[in-house]
């Protein structure tokens, strides 16, 4: 009877060892950073929530004022680009220059309204 327990115990230990060591030797997988599908692209809400998290980190003094300003500016530029892409996708691309400037100003105003709305929600 001792041999049965010895064999079963050995199988359990070998199986556990296999599951622990096998990820280190697996190959042929593409790193997660290189794979980007449509589901993994950033949304406007994710950018806004990242700005809110950044502000929380700054208020809790986890990051410096310089880093905060740089990152916040980068996120706001990203949000502006995303809103411009959305508005350009909806409307014709052959607008006169004056109308484009007006639309750009409207997009920036919309970004600021959305940021204010999200700040008030998460508060």
Automatic annotation (TrEMBL):
Record-annotated membrane-spanning stretches: 6-25
Presence of the UniProt keyword Transmembrane helix in the record: yes
Coiled coil residues, start to end: 65-122
Domain of life of the native organism: Bacteria
Keywords: Coiled coil, Membrane, Transmembrane, Transmembrane helix
Name the record gives this protein: C-type cytochrome biogenesis protein CcmI
Organism in which the protein naturally occurs: Mesobacillus boroniphilus
